[in-house]
Amino acid sequence: MKTFLREIGIIILLGVIICFLLQTTIQRFTVIGPSMEPSSHDGQQLITNKIVYHFHEPERGDVIIFYPPNQEQEVYIKRIIALPGDTVEIKEGIVYVSGSPLEEPYIKEPPRYTFQQYKIPPDSYFVLGDNRNNSHDSHNGWVVLRQNIVGKVWLSIWPPSKWGLIPTYPQEEQITEPMSKELSLLRRPEGA
Questions:
Q1: Cα(34)–Cα(39) distance, rounded to whole angstroms?
Q2: Does the domain at residues 28-176 carry the CATH identifier 2.10.109.10?
């Protein structure tokens, strides 16, 4: 009988430990609104990795969950566009980071607004929704403080048709060098 009770106690203790570890490392969030379409949709449920940024800094292209300025009760989901020290500018439907245009295959449509050049302060991130023209984000004049980031969106778990890892767009793939495009056009062989 003592062995049985000890085994039950160990199972319960292991269950509590596993539950605690899961609560401190991942968290489920539900997307509210259309601001991240077409990447994420209203009602979609996502798993966020809450410890990843203890090992490295947030990167351009990461989809994050965060507390917006002056709002501790709700969380937002957006994509990191510019990092601390970068400059960002939006004009003629193109986002420029430190003077280079971004290639953004994940957006619904190009932005129809202008954002004057702005340097991102230390420990701050410039974020935009993928549905650029229907998103309350950094183009409205605010940035995300590092301490307000909850985590990186990692996995879609609902609906089943959207199940899978959230695609990432590493910064070296997003920044295009306008000069290199011109050079590649100049170097194209005749008849191509």
A1: 10
A2: yes
Question: Tell me: the pLDDT tens digits for 41-85?
Answer: 999 999 999 999 989 999 999 999 999 987 777 899 999 999 999
Contact 95, 129 (CB under 8 A): no
DSSP per residue, the chain? -HHHHHHHHHHHHHHHHHHHHHHHHEEEEE--SSTTTTTS-TT-EEEEESSGGGTS---TT-EEEEPPTT-SS--EEEEEEE-TT-EEEEETTEEEETTEEBP-TT-SS---S-EEEEEPPTTEEEEE-SSGGG--SGGGS--EEGGGEEEEEEEEEESGGG-EEPP---HHHHB--HHHHHHHHHTPPTT-
Considering 35, 40, 135, 138, which one is annotated as catalytic? Answer: 35
Q: Where are the domains of the chain?
A: 28-176
pTM exceeds 0.85: no
Catalytic-residue membership of 35: yes
Q: Exactly one of 39, 50, 78, 124 is catalytic; name it.
A: 78
Count of all residues that appear for the chain in the document: 192
